[in-house]
Design a protein that fits this description.
Blueprint: H1 2-20, E1 22-31, E2 35-42, E3 47-54, E4 66-67, E5 79-80, E6 95-98, E7 108-116, E8 122-131, E9 136-145, E10 150-159, E11 165-178, E12 182-188, E13 196-201, E14 205-211, E15 224-229, E16 240-245, E17 251-257, E18 262-269, E19 276-278, E20 283-285, E21 289-294, H2 297-313, E22 324-326, H3 328-331, H4 337-350, E23 354-357, H5 388-398, E24 402-407, E25 411-412, H6 417-421, E26 441-442, H7 448-464, E27 468-473, H8 495-513, E28 518-521, H9 531-534, E29 539-541, H10 548-559, E30 567-572, H11 585-592, E31 596-600, H12 608-631, E32 633-638, E33 646-652, E34 658-665, E35 676-677, E36 687-693, E37 707-709, H13 710-715, E38 718-719, E39 728-735
Parallel strand pairs: 22-23, 22-31, 23-24, 24-27, 27-28, 28-29, 29-30, 30-31
Antiparallel strand pairs: 1-2, 1-4, 2-3, 3-5, 6-11, 7-8, 8-9, 9-10, 10-20, 10-21, 11-18, 11-19, 12-13, 12-15, 14-17, 15-16, 16-21, 17-18, 25-26, 32-33, 33-34, 34-39, 35-38, 36-37, 36-39
Helix pairs in contact: 7-8, 10-11, 11-12
The structure holds (2R,3S,4R,5S)-2-(hydroxymethyl)piperidine-3,4,5-triol (DGJ).
(2R,3S,4R,5S)-2-(hydroxymethyl)piperidine-3,4,5-triol binds near residues 359, 406, 522, 525 and 544.
């Protein structure tokens, strides 16, 4: 009798489990050239994440897909496409909402899918989801960029309930992965040391990459990662995912290795103190999370991101960028007309194309002779520049140079007319003393009047001085005390998101009027380097650290995510102002020519042989290197993070007929120790002449000028005579027919 009872219970459990085994009723496959992202809908209308990786030839297999039942429940082990708190998800939620009636639970069901494949380069998919009980909807958007193998994802959350809904978590995207082990590469740093690379094996628990600084958010971490499955990331092989959040405010990328050994990646705006209330009928749109995948290692991941970034992620990414002389390290705040026109004379002689006047040109009641006054008062300082900006602009033009100008329109010195006239525009907390950073405070961009002001700083400068052709947009502090005199008490938590959205509103207006105008993205160096900001910029100031050795590391990390064409990379003086390190001019040039070349010094101090070298190097950059840096494919050959004390990389033209190779000696080496550099990205069957340029009196390869087969260069490699620390070599490769 007893055993019959157990048998009955067992039968019940079995039939219950069988019922719980979810059945797939629909497959949604989103495809790029080599990747597939697959969701399925099960018989209970759950949208389930199935797969993101190498393209599937037969997605029909997913129709047969079933998930095993969890014990003691009618749920199964499948992962929702966009997991919410409430019913079925015990991991980090992408979305958590307090509904109008106070309920904490959300459970989304699939409603429909819309696809727009009218463009050959980009397919748009919107999956409509709705809470099973409430009138609360989520649209899951995915853009698939076919040729670049990039997808981007974001959500629109809509409240159709009778009362307000409070969002406490509102991530852009959820990506679960399954492997034996997971290796996360992320990018940490500080002022003058951005995009340092670190790789770690993820263990159970949650690893978080985040920022709560509100503004200048990418100096200490970057909202980007590379994730390698089963082993540390390799340059040319292995399953690798790249991700980057297009958002310039607080972010949070959480990597949870859960009890099922799956990695749950939740990326989006940092919900820290940012609860968002959605009134009936309102919606909230999250920023885009950008992903790519390759089974050819992080090299291909970064090339995918570069291709995408140049085309969709920045302004004019495929355009040749001018060589710039920026006045900052050459003059700082101490200049007059003669200093600047003298710099322009030299710039023109050297072959530079744009002169940029950095900080210090404005403020009269409170002159900007240091960083403690004048910020916010965007009128030309009459003492320093009695004939105004137009005199300088005309002078630049007379020398064949374009003229650029520095602004920092989101910020204000307490000692300024702007702070006197509009104290209410400053970010502040009632009754508390305001904390200055670099003697400055932040303007409250959640306020539309401040947005107008910031827009007008840009627009009036360009309308009054139409000869300006370049703006360097700086931002030198973060949020210390959040608080807006504009927002009601109940919406103070909206400040963080509204600041960034306010900034983007300003940029949208600017780009509507000045679509291709050259704007540099700068925030104390690389403090605002993310695809949210880059979308409005043509280039980025990679770091305030212009030391070439530091730059090799900074630019290496940067190049894993962002296109090198935008990486402003300037030759500065020696000893370097940030590190005091002394390096030869050739080394400084060779490093700077791996990105968007510029100079950041007093050029009259370069004389004699050094000047001849500078002229030659700039000429070579224009003629041969620049087109390859602009649109060529980057191959990293030797990592500066390796133990050898070398670094090397190359850019290869799309047709593989030309390439430029850079190699650097970054540590002392004993006599007779040389690096062998194995090239990459060439056509094995083509023959290339290898010719050293910027030699500066010495040949560094025994085969200089000779022709080699592509397969020899890539498999055998070439040994370079660059043992001395800070020696370097640049070679042009040209196909010989
Ligand atoms: C910080 C920037 O990163 C520098 O290049 C320079 O523009 C200074 N600000 C000027 O204040």
């Amino acid at each position: 009798m007893k055993s019959l009872k157990y048998l009955l219970i067992l039968c019940l459990i079995l039939s219950f489990s069988d019922l719980a085994m979810s059945q797939t009723t629909k497959v949604i496959e989103i495809k790029t050239k080599s990747t597939s992202l697959v969701y399925t809908v099960d018989q209970t209308n759950r949208l389930v994440f199935q797969y993101f990786g190498r393209a599937t030839a037969s997605p029909a297999g997913f129709l047969k897909q079933k998930a095993y039942p969890k014990p003691d429940t009618n749920r199964d082990y499948s992962y929702e496409a966009y997991p919410t708190f409430g019913l079925g998800n015990i991991n980090e939620p992408a979305l958590a909402a307090i509904h109008a009636d106070g309920s904490l639970n959300t459970e989304l069901e699939f409603l429909s899918v819309e696809r727009d494949d009218s463009r050959s380069d980009l397919e748009k998919t919107v999956i409509h989801l709705k809470d099973r009980v409430y009138d609360f909807e989520v649209e899951l958007h995915t853009n698939a960029f076919f040729s670049e193998d990039v997808i981007s994802q974001w959500v629109v959350i809509r409240n159709l309930e009778k009362g307000p809904v409070h969002l406490t978590n509102f991530a852009s995207s959820f990506l679960p992965l399954k492997a034996e082990s997971y290796y996360l590469t992320h990018f940490y740093g500080a002022w003058a040391g951005e995009m340092g690379m670190v790789e770690e094996k993820l263990e159970n628990g949650i690893k978080v990459i985040e920022c709560k600084k509100g503004v200048r958010t990418t100096q200490t971490e970057n909202p980007s990662f590379i994730l390698s499955l089963n082993h540390p990331a390799l340059e040319n092989e292995g399953d690798c995912y790249g991700g980057s959040l297009a958002w310039s405010g607080n972010y949070r990328l959480a990597f949870q290795l859960d009890e099922l050994k799956k990695l749950n990646i939740i990326s989006g705006i940092n919900p820290f103190l940012s609860a968002w209330s959605l009134n009936p009928g309102e919606s909230f749109t999250t920023p885009e999370m950008i992903y790519t995948y390759s089974n050819e290692g992080r090299g291909q991941v970064s090339r995918n991101l570069h291709e995408w970034g140049r085309k969709y992620g920045m302004v004019g990414g495929d355009q040749i960028h001018d060589i710039v002389l920026n006045s900052w390290e050459g003059a700082y705040f101490s200049f007059d007309e003669n200093t600047l026109t003298g710099m322009m004379d030299d710039a023109a002689e050297l072959g530079i194309e744009t002169f940029v006047l950095d900080d210090g040109w404005f403020g009269n009641k409170y002159p900007r002779s240091n960083d403690d006054a004048g910020l916010g008062d965007w009128q030309t300082n009459k003492n320093k520049l009695p004939r105004g900006l137009d005199y300088l602009i005309d002078y630049a033009h007379s020398k064949g140079l374009k003229f650029g100008l520095w602004i920092e329109p989101e910020m204000v010195n307490p000692e300024s007319e702007l702070a006197e006239n509009h104290p209410e525009w400053i970010v502040q907390s009632p009754g508390r003393e305001k904390i200055a950073w670099r003697n400055q405070l932040l303007l409250d961009l959640s306020n539309p009047k401040v947005q107008d002001f910031v827009y007008n700083v840009f627009d009036s400068l360009l309308t009054t001085h139409p000869g300006i052709e370049y703006i360097k947009w700086d931002a030198n502090r973060h949020v210390e005390q959040a608080g807006s005199t504009w927002l009601p008490a109940s919406e103070q938590t909206h400040f963080w998101v509204l600041y960034t959205k306010g900034l983007y509103t300003v940029y949208e207006r600017i780009r509507a009027k000045y679509p291709n105008f050259m704007i540099q993205d700068c925030a104390s160096g690389g403090g605002r380097l993310d695809y949210g900001a880059l979308k409005y910029h043509n280039e980025y100031w990679t770091s305030d650290n212009t030391d070439p050795l530091s730059r090799i590391f900074i630019q290496y990390g940067t190049s894993l995510i962002y296109p090198p064409v935008g990486s402003a990379s300037h030759v500065s003086t020696s000893p370097n102002h940030q590190t005091q390190r002394m390096t030869p001019l050739k080394f400084r040039f060779d490093v700077a020519t791996t990105g968007r070349l510029g100079m950041e010094l007093q050029p009259k101090n370069i004389q004699g042989k050094e000047r001849e070298f500078a002229v030659e190097s700039i000429r070579n950059y224009k003629q041969t290197i620049r087109p390859l840096v602009t649109v060529g494919d980057l191959y990293r050959l030797i990592s500066p993070y390796d133990d050898g004390g070398w670094a090397s990389q190359m850019y290869v033209a799309k047709d593989k007929a030309e390439a430029v190779l850079f190699a650097f000696s970054i540590a002392p080496h004993t006599r007779g120790v040389f690096p062998t550099v194995k090239l990459n990205g060439l056509d094995e069957t083509k023959h290339y002449q290898v010719k050293e340029i910027n030699k500066n009196g010495r040949v560094r390869f025994w085969g200089d000028g000779q022709t080699f087969a592509g397969d020899y260069l890539m498999n055998v490699g070439i040994e370079l005579n660059i043992s001395d620390q800070f020696d370097s070599a640049v070679f042009l490769l040209k196909e010989m027919k």
